[in-house]
Amino acid sequence: MNKNHPVYHSLVSRLESLREQYRHHPCERNRYRLVRQEQLIAQWVQSSDLPT
What we know:
By secondary structure, the chain is mainly alpha-helical.
């Protein structure tokens, strides 16, 4: 996978934002959003590694 891909950067940027929110406000909603973002990144990385 290309680490310079704009989609990857966007997803990682959002992940960092969610981590910061969870650090300051550790609640179930923020935890869910954080875990979901991690799952989206994992799915995108796997699918982007497939040959086209």
